[in-house]
Amino acid sequence: KGKEKWPRGDEKVWKDGLRGVDKDVPDITRSVVHHVQTSLARQAYNLDEAGAYQAAALSVRDNLLVNWNETQLHFNSKPTKRAYYLSLEFLMGRTLDNALLNLGLKNKYADGITKLGFSLEDLLEQERDAALGNGGLGRLAACYLDSSASQELPVWGYGLRYQYGIFQQLIGPDGSQLEAPDPWLQHDNPWELPRSDVTYDIRFYGHSERVDGMKAVWSGGQEVLAVAYDVMIPGYATKNTNNLRLWESKPKRGFDLNSFNAGDYERAVESSNSAAAITSVLYPNDHTTFGKELRLKQQYFWTAASLADILRRFKNLDKPISEFPEYVSIQLNDTHPTLAIPELMRILLDEEDVPWDAAWDIVTRTFFFTNHTVLPKWPVPLMQHLLPRHMQIIFDIVTVEKKFPGDREKLARMSLIEEGFPQNVRMANLACIGSRKVNGVAELHSDLLRATIMKDFVDFFGISKFFNVTNGITPRRWLDQCNPLLSQLIADTLKLPKATFLKDLTRLEGLLKFEDDPNFQKKWAAVKQSNKERLAHYVQVTTGHIINTKAMFDVQIKRLHEYKRQTLNILGVIHRYLALKAMTPEERKKVNPKVVFFAGKAAPGYYIAKLTIRLIVNAARIINEDPETKDILSLFFLPDYSVSLAEILIPASDISQHISTAGTEASGTSNMKFCLNGGLLLGTVDGANIEIAEEVGEQNVFFFGHLTPAVEDLRYQHMYHPVPIEQKCPGLAKVINEVSAGRFGDAGVYEPLLNTIRQNDYYLLTEDFDSYIQALKLVDEAYQDRTEWIKKSIRTTAKMGKFSSDRAIQDYAQECWNIESNKLP
Ligand code: NBG
User: Fold this and answer.
1) Residues 46 and 90 in one domain
2) What sections of 624-683 are H helices per DSSP?
3) Cβ neighbours for 212, distance < 8 A, ≥ 6 positions apart
4) CA of 353 to the centre of ligand 1 (A)
5) What's the order of all strands across the beta sheet hosting 633-637?
């Protein structure tokens, strides 16, 4: 860096640091300098920000490790019931900031880092997101880990350590999404500990031979090694530090010796590659299961390694195997880990010599199943090939457990096997009958489960097996970390230490007392304003655009999906643009300016969703350049949506959109994050939007659109009595025609997208468009009365207590897991 002064910062501090860590004087700068020297083998004289971040992270990790070790000792000191959260996705985001806040060390580190000549804020930016998830389901798992540790509950997560997380999203010259790999492990990851001592052999393929009755011997095939990596999960304001164990696949031997001896070197190397391939990449599709062999392999690899590990821990307790469910509860996060059910059966029958009935009893007292979405299935022939023993067990469950009474149609619906060519295994049915309880993720979703897809099972098992846990979010990351100004204002206003409301979010209700206080309103608005400026700064740095921060900020950020209806939003924006264009300059002067933000990824193979991105990007290019309107309407698609980007966008929003077709969004969790940060909600009567409105009062949210019970009928009408769009919804037809005519470039490319609306319009845009435009108008009007808007914003934040993931985890701990908090002294 040319003439810059070296070392950076205070030379004496660096020199002191070189004397090493003094156990009696826990000194932050010393421990950072120590890591620069011994872990990185670098010096003050050549240290860049990336290196300083590594050293700071390693120093923080030392703190976590001590707590982590003590927590394990503490829980091992007497037989403790534990819960395990099996999730194929953990969308953790960054760790350093969160760890510092949870440890209560942020200010001290900020000082220490400054003395060393760096800024903590800059170092935080050096960290890459751990993006081992697609969206809501994976981020929920991350929030639940934070809440479990913060409430001192003995809960571990189990997942996979993907070499490549969710792809990086780029936008090509024509406005389309491009995908690049996410090599997040390229630099050392200070937040994980490889455990070469914790490994298991996992078998695939081969053959299964029955020996006396229900037992079998499974042998041959391919064996792969599962190696554990541990990620420390610090609780907030507690020493308790839990564990997230992620598995990596490795070839069992360096290469396949048989092939090697036969002189086939290439095949030998290939087999070792195929073992490593199992955990190489996170599948970027969400909500849908493609019949991909590698994905089924991932699912088995992960469930088998996790169960082996759980069983080993249980065996240390020296209890009879029949007591397994007294010490172990396992939560299945969606159907992905369903193979754990036949796998535990296999272990019990084939390895532990437990008779069938006793084994099934243990299994059905151990597992709990959360449904997050539609129903995946796996072709029987693939399962038979990859996991012959498990397919046998599934067929045995079908025969032995065939006690479901009722007509043949009902039986066919409930069966684990769907008839057809090929037959399929219905994973949701297997998860349901193999679990003690089944839950949905918001009231409406759980009601729908009970009334529709799980109805036959409700009739058979009784209603008490089916219940609801409304999702939640951690207020540590989604208030204190992403919006420090707001959390400070709340603490000052309520005269409470932050920890009080960050651990009991219902305390926010205390803010209601201040909603009419003009002084408080002013401070509240100032916080929002500075978060808008932070976002504007980010946009300017990343895209070069300058944003009017006095405008209303309207945000929709989530996975691109037809049911989430980003298309409705962009067509609404275009509708607004056309209306502005039709105004006189005088009329335009009276319009309140608005900036619309989109962010989100589309699955690489999801053609229609990718067209929506392209339309947003190209519409933005036209709209943002239009001299007549650009001061009152601008539009941004921010590429490469991530947890870290959400942390900037959410605190800056005035209004956010959650506009799924009614009955399609199981819950949604970003809706809760926006509201917690004082953003108002524009949405359909769907998922957790409903419960948010129940809490904050319907006068404080903007609802529109048809309700769930109407959806099926409307779809039926679209199928059998279609009405042309010009007749059904002229406003929308006009917008679509403009797009089709090439007003936003590329006439013709959008036809397949527009046709989904013109033709059977499965997601009901033509039905909801008019009320959507009406709702947007109400939002504009409400925003004019700034004081009333601020009050709504305060009320919204104040009533978010229910949506803390601490509450959700308590629901699980009590309804399902039967575990107890145990705080480290
Ligand atoms: C998603 C739902 C969301 C819900 C999250 C978390 C999947 C498969 N499902 O509505 O679509 O909020 O799960 O429960 O990601």
Assistant:
1) no
2) 643-649, 670-676
3) none
4) 39
5) 633-637, 594-599, 552-557, 655-658, 680-684, 702-704
Whether omega for the bond prior to residue 337 falls within 30 degrees of 0, making it cis, is no
Residue bearing the CA closest to ligand 1, atom 13: 137
CA 390, 395, 399 angle in degrees (round to 5)? 145
89 lines ligand 1 (CB under 6 A): no
Domain span at 739: 475-809
* Cα 798 to Cα 807: distance, rounded to the nearest angstrom: 16
Query: Strands (DSSP E) along 502-567, which ranges?
Result: 552-557
Residue among 143, 156, 159, 148 nearest 72 (CA): 156
Q: Does residue 258 sit within a domain? A: no
689 lines ligand 1 (CB under 6 A): no
Q: What is the per-residue pLDDT across 495-530, written as a single tens digit (0 to 9) for each? A: 999 999 999 999 999 999 999 999 999 999 999 999
Burial of residue 727 (CB within 10 Å: 0-12, 13-18, 19+) is exposed
689-721 CB burial, b ≥16 within 10 A, e <16 = bbbbbebbeeebbbbbbbebeebeebbeebeee
Structural domain includes residue 463: no
Q: Which of 137, 439, 691 to mutate to test the pocket of ligand 1 (most atoms within 8 A of CB)?
A: 137
210 is an active site residue: no
**Which of 558, 610, 706, 795 is an active site residue?**
558
- Among protein residues, the one with the nearest Cα to ligand 1's atom 9 is 372
Paired residues of 438 in beta bridges: 369, 466
Catalytic residue among 287, 297, 559, 575: 559
Residue 290 DSSP SS3: coil
Q: Give the span between the Cα atoms of 228 and 156, in whole angstroms.
A: 13
How many Å apart are CA 303 and CA 671, to the nearest integer? 31
Q: What is the predicted pLDDT for the residue at 263?
A: 65
Which residue CA neighbors atom 12 of ligand 1 most closely? 668
Which residue in 34, 673, 706, 799 is the catalytic one?
673
ipTM beyond cut 0.90: yes
Q: Cα separation of 117 and 4, whole Å?
A: 11
Integer CA distances (angstroms), 108 to 25, 100, 180, in order:
14, 9, 38
Structural domain total, the chain: 3
673 is annotated as an active-site residue:
yes
Q: Is 315 exposed, middle or buried (0-12, 13-18, 19+ CB in 10 A)?
A: exposed
> 648 in a domain, yes or no?
yes
CB 587 within 8 A of CB 688: no
Q: How far apart are CA 244 and CA 136, in angstroms?
A: 18
Query: Could you tell me if 307 and 340 lie in one domain?
Result: yes
Closest atom of ligand 1 relative to the 445 alpha carbon: 10
Does 108 qualify as catalytic in the annotation?
A: no
Residue 397 belongs to some domain of the structure: yes
Query: How big is the CA angle at 465 (ends 460 and 470), to the nearest 5 degrees?
Result: 135
CATH number of the domain residue 90 falls in? 3.40.50.2000
How high is the mean pLDDT in each 10-residue block of the chain (825 residues)? 66 73 64 94 90 97 95 93 98 98 95 94 97 97 98 98 97 96 92 96 96 93 96 97 98 66 67 85 84 92 98 97 98 97 98 97 98 79 94 89 74 89 92 97 96 91 96 98 98 98 98 98 98 98 95 98 97 98 96 98 96 98 97 97 98 98 96 98 98 98 97 93 96 97 90 96 97 98 98 98 98 97 92
Q: Is 222 helix (H, G, I), strand (E, B) or coil?
A: strand
Residue 199 β-bridge partners = 227
Residue 703 carries which DSSP code? Answer: E
Binding site membership of 667 for ligand 1 (Cβ less than 6 Å): yes
Report whether 570 contacts 564 (CB < 8 A).
no
Q: How far is CA 737 from the centre of its chain?
A: 37
User: φ and ψ at 625, to 5 degrees?
Assistant: -100, -5
**What spacing in Å lies between the alpha carbon of 236 and ligand 1's midpoint?**
25
